[in-house]
Structure formats: structure tokens, C-alpha cells
Design a protein that fits this description.
One of its GO terms (cellular component) is cytosol. The chain is an alpha/beta fold. The chain has five helices and seven strands; from the N terminus they run ββαββαβαβαβα. Strand 5, helix 3 (about 120-130) and strand 6 form a beta-alpha-beta unit. Bound molecules: guanosine-5'-triphosphate and magnesium ion (MG). Magnesium ion binds near residues 37 and 75.
Length: about 200
């Protein structure tokens, strides 16, 4: 897809702040540091747009990126991290749960797992929960550049098995470093957004 415009429009901390229009959106999900923001930047070919860091983020907001005046990418803070109080964590959990369950504009969830490792318990739970709520899930195996190509199939099989992936769910090996998988990821995302 040719990107003509891309900007962060709102960091939403609660439902009232979600954009009101009926434009379609895809949201990123995955543990902290897995490469969500890098994924957005790679697809948009905008290096510093979504903030990436080696230190896990503390902010609890849904970051809405408005693309080509047509759709949103929603960067979601990684799970498995919380430098906040239990109370805040629970409140945020409720915002997220409601978002993933009810948001009508949400056409698919891009779930990222680090393809070097077996998916974590949280990855499995998240995937199951999304499928239970009948969300389309596009699974991305990140950091593919760190795994020898000859081992990709083996790693992919482990991810499919651990997540108990449905056969028709996509699993795409991806690297923000090399651009591997970028076209496939775009295909899957645009299908979800506009079909
Ligand atoms: P949070 O916002 O904390 O949830 O993390 P995130 O999932 O957005 O991860 P982010 O994109 O910030 O990437 C975390 C680190 O992994 C950064 O140092 C990235 O440069 C690195 N990284 C992300 N994707 C890749 C990849 O495909 N290959 C390699 N080698 N490094 C990557
Ligand atoms: Mg991030």
C-alpha cells in the first residue's frame, strides 16, 4: 500500500476518547518488547512514527495512527508489564477487555509473538481469548532476522501448535530489520480492513 499520510491522532486512555467515526482499524497485541511499534513503523515506512524502545513502555493508552485518511492502526501497550499499581492495572485491563470485545471498528487483531521462542502463557491466553470473542487474528512471528531461515518452518510449527491456531488463521514470519514478511502482512491487514 502506498502511504500518503500517517500521523498519531490520539493516545486514548478511555473509551470516550476513541475516535468516533466508523473507519476500520487493526490493533496490535503482544508482550512488551515483541516489536509492535516496529511493526507499524515498518509497514508505514516511517521510522520514528510509533515510539520504540528497549525499555518497556509504562503508558497505558491506545495510540491511534490515522493512515491515508482511511483507517487506523492502533498500538496497544504490551502485556506482561506493569510499572503501575494493581488498581491502575485492573482499571486498564477493563478498558482493554472492553475494547477488544466491543469495538465495532476493529476488523482484526495483529498478534505478535517473538519467533525465537515458544509462545508464552500470556500469548496463548490472549490468542484464545480473542478467538473466543470471534476476532480475526493475524499472527506475526517477529524478529525473523534472528533465526536462520532453515529453522523457520520448525519455529512456525511450534507457534501454531502452542497457540492451537486455527488452520485458516495466518502466521507470517516478519522482520522489522530486513522487511521480511512486509508484503504478506500488508495483504493480510488490507484484506481484514476492507473486505
Ligand atoms: P512495547 O511498546 O514496550 O510494548 O514494545 P513493542 O512491542 O512496541 O516493541 P518495539 O517495537 O519497541 O521493539 C522492541 C525492541 O525490539 C527494539 O529494540 C526494536 O529495535 C527491536 N525489534 C523489533 N522488531 C525487531 C525485528 O524484527 N528484528 C530485530 N532484530 N529487532 C527488532
Ligand atoms: Mg511499542
Amino acid at each position: 500500500m502506498k502511504i500518503t499520510s500517517a500521523e498519531l491522532t490520539i493516545s486514548a486512555a478511555k473509551e470516550e476518547q476513541f475516535p468516533p467515526g466508523m473507519f476500520p482499524e487493526v490493533a496490535l497485541s503482544g508482550r512488551s518488547n515483541v516489536g509492535k511499534s516496529s511493526f507499524i513503523n515498518t509497514l508505514l515506512a516511517r521510522k520514528g512514527l510509533a515510539r520504540t524502545s528497549q525499555r518497556p513502555g509504562k503508558t497505558q493508552t491506545l495510540n491511534y495512527y490515522w493512515i491515508n485518511n482511511r483507517f487506523h492502526f492502533v498500538d496497544v501497550p504490551g502485556y506482561g508489564y506493569a510499572k503501575v499499581s494493581k488498581k491502575e492495572r485492573e482499571a486498564w485491563g477493563r478498558v482493554l477487555e472492553s475494547y477488544f470485545q466491543n469495538r465495532e471498528q476493529l476488523k482484526a487483531v495483529v498478534q505478535l509473538v517473538d519467533m525465537r521462542h515458544k509462545p508464552s502463557k500470556e500469548d496463548v491466553m490472549m490468542y484464545e481469548w480473542l478467538k473466543h470473542h470471534e476476532r480475526e487474528v493475524i499472527v506475526i512471528g517477529t524478529k525473523a532476522d534472528k533465526v536462520a531461515k532453515g529453522k523457520w518452518d520448525k519455529h512456525a510449527a511450534i507457534i501454531r501448535k502452542e497457540l492451537q491456531m486455527h488452520e485458516d488463521d495466518k502466521l507470517i514470519m516478519f522482520s522489522a530489520e530486513t522487511g521480511q514478511g512486509k508484503d504478506k502482512a500488508w495483504n493480510a491487514v488490507t484484506k481484514a480492513l476492507f473486505n
